[in-house]
């Protein structure tokens, strides 16, 4: 089996005539924290969504722990797996989105419990115990019986992160988890993600928070026109950009 937790080879994604990803190669090992940065439209979120097949891709391979996601090779052709197989594979990754996607009619603890009961087949007592553990971890245990409408945006995002992590994913995907938040709420969510990184959780993040990408990542990837423009350790990439495009991007990001 590959030593890489995530392996992406020659990934291409098109929306009609528009090629959004133009041959991405990316590997991650367990415990890696990789941040994707770049201008809007550079392909960051699309790449993230291909990892768990929220977007289907036309060419290439995405594999988690050596298992190809979404497809298998049969008679020299690529064949899509069954929905049941894809659902099983999706459970290998957790995802937190820009918008929290919590069920408004369920309390915080019920939102976290739902996947554990429906997908993992746990009984309610076990699911409740795990949900409480993760809500405590993200500082939301005291508000476990509140509905999303009674919580701030930062609090809702912390519940959404707890919900994803409670499923015990091998890889956590974060898509601009602070972009829908008021500025004063950003740091409380970033602190949770930083804490999880220190615990050794494997993460692939799309972020426009350059200081956060610098502090949390062991590798940063600059996406440019559907390709990887530059990558490296954050201290190198941010302090000594090799390309004018990255230097200009960092300047415009006020880093």
Note the topology.
Layout: E1 6-15, E2 18-28, E3 33-37, H1 44-51, E4 59-64, E5 67-68, E6 71-74, E7 77-80, H2 83-90, E8 93-96, H3 108-118, H4 124-137, H5 153-166, E9 171-175, H6 183-198, E10 203-206, H7 210-216, E11 219-224, E12 227-232, H8 234-239, H9 244-252
Parallel strand pairs: 3-10, 3-11, 8-9, 9-10
Antiparallel strand pairs: 1-2, 1-4, 4-5, 6-7, 11-12
Helix pairs in contact: 3-4, 3-5, 4-5, 5-6
Describe this structure in words.
The protein has 255 residues and is α/β, with parallel strands linked by helices. Helix content is 36%, strand content 26%. It is built from 9 helices and 12 strands. It has helices at 44-51, 83-90, 108-118, 124-137, 153-166, 183-198, 210-216, 234-239, 244-252, and strands at residues 6-15, 18-28, 33-37, 59-64, 67-68, 71-74, 77-80, 93-96, 171-175, 203-206, 219-224, 227-232. It has a 6-stranded mixed beta sheet with strand order 8-9-10-3-11-12, with helices on both faces. Strand 6 and strand 7 form a beta hairpin. Helix 3 runs parallel beside helix 5 (153-166) and helix 4 (124-137) packs across helix 5 (153-166). It is globular. The termini are far apart. The model has no long low-confidence stretch (mean pLDDT 92).
